[in-house]
Amino acid sequence: MHPYLIPLLTFAAAAAVFTITPGLDTAMTLRTATTSGWKAGLAAVVGICLGLGIWGLAAAFGLTALLAASETAFTVVKWAGALYLAWLGIGLILHPRTSLGTADAVPVQADARAAFRRGLLTNLLNPKVGIFYMTFMPQFIPPHVNVKEFSLLLTAIQALLSFSWLALLVVLTVPLGRFLSSATVVRRMDRLTGSIFLAFSLKLALSRRA
């Protein structure tokens, strides 16, 4: 058995648990897929996974150590993320969409770009993701390996798991498309998601460095 197989499998199992645990990424993926369609949903998933990859890359090169060491850096990123989530949440609550496919609806391509941007920013503006990579991944890095290369491998595994799980959630919304695209469901989904975003905004604002 390859000496690195056990650490990789152990990390994959632990990362899978974190991945399937409902959180902000799950809420954003489901809301986007149910109200904007599967293409926008997948675009959001790609944005989320790219954000995870960037944080993992930063962790591999030690950049996120700044967040762990500097109270100012952590606070700046934390409040930027909290305000961004609050802005998204308030917008969804006050101005929920009532239908899909209307004459003034956002074009599919533009909607997908917006979904990708939201997925990316919600991860990049969450310093807890960076701290997670800095504190969680090193536990699975065996001795006598190239730390950067192994960290990037673990990041790739995490991103692949996240993409697989979130993409599955998008696929599962397709059979329910007609029901989920009704005016009442769209409006309630937007307001529910807005409330969840506000809750995560408050949680992020109150968070402290580990």
TrEMBL record:
Subcellular location: Cell membrane
Matching Pfam families: LysE
Species annotation: Gluconobacter kondonii
Lineage: Bacteria, Pseudomonadati, Pseudomonadota, Alphaproteobacteria, Acetobacterales
Top-level taxonomic group: Bacteria
Name by which UniProt lists this protein: Lysine transporter LysE
Keywords of the record: Cell membrane, Membrane, Transmembrane, Transmembrane helix
InterPro entries registered for this protein in UniProt: LeuE-type
Membrane topology field: Multi-pass membrane protein
Transmembrane segments: 43-69, 76-94, 152-177
